[in-house]
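Our collaborator T.R. sent over the components below with a one-line note: 'Predict the complex.' Nothing else. No constraints on interfaces, no templates requested, no preferences about which chain binds where. So this is a plain run: every listed entity goes in together, and whatever single assembly comes back becomes the starting point for the next discussion.
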Amino acid sequence: EAQVTQNPRYLITVTGKKLTVTCSQNMNHEYMSWYRQDPGLGLRQIYYSMNVEVTDKGDVPEGYKVSRKEKRNFPLILESPSPNQTSLYFCASSRGTANEKLFFGSGTQLSVL
Amino acid sequence: RKEVEQDPGPFNVPEGATVAFNCTYSNSASQSFFWYRQDCRKEPKLLMSVYSSGNEDGRFTAQLNRASQYISLLIRDSKLSDSATYLCVVTRSYNNNDMRFGAGTRLTVKP
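Returned assembly:
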């Protein structure tokens, strides 16, 4: 089954404790992206990647890191999480050309205390 | 001003009603337009792309007005299962993969 797998689904952590949210897709997609969703603001792009070893900042990259060492994986790293990073996070992928639809993971609800 | 703006709603309509949502975008060079559907706290899923000539998929019709920079979604004969948040999505011209999402319009269809 074609899918984007995100883990964990829920995560509660404390300020400053490094964490990684994993994202993996099995569709051989070129493009992968991370978003955060906050009430009233919609989805905002954090980082995206057009291909292996190619990543770029989105609208809200501060406090986040990503890597794209393999085509299928695109982890999101929070080196020192803060409470303002409490949010619902989504990973997405697509074939990368214009008008291609995004396939989303099921989301990660992160709470930073 | 947000790049993509939607009326947040909520729209509460009875089953069988026709309901329309609008979305405005500020980047006149935007190239691609979509409507996604999101059920409560779940992942967004593509409902339909929006083409310049307008397009229809069953009970759903999408329109694009480039001159006025807005897109619309019309839902006819609303079903209970149409209750969801509808996200307007626009891609920037210089990077077709750099998508901008509206905050969503919430629809509740009641019996």
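Summary for T.R.: The longest strand of chain A covers residues 42-51.
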